[in-house]
Amino acid sequence: MITFLLINNSTSKEKKYEISPSASSEIKAENEKKLKEIEEIQTILYQEDGFFEQVNNKLKERGYAFQVGVAVYSKDDIRVKYILINKDAVEPAQKEIKSIFYEAVKKNDLDPDSFHLKVGDSDDGPDW
Predict the structure, then answer these.
(1) Does residue 94 form part of some domain?
(2) pTM of this prediction?
């Protein structure tokens, strides 16, 4: 769900804009639908023995220490960033982590195109 804020600091005459009740209820229904979708996705990703637990356990077995950031915008736009703590995010490490990650995606019958995965290290910025 994305929220926009518009602040108009104009000195011109004040105009009031109203949203019709039907448009307002449509927007509310759409937002509720998106929120429910995101909650369902989060349940799948974070349940016990679920997706992230599987990936994280496999990475720990391979000796990786990491932090993970996840942003779920919709079922088709899930952004994941693994930040390596004990190793540099060199190409072989990135390939191994991506391989483990996408194997788990396949195993859990998730859509690989929904995920945007980035692997970085402590020198990497906060970008997705």
Answers:
(1) yes
(2) 0.74
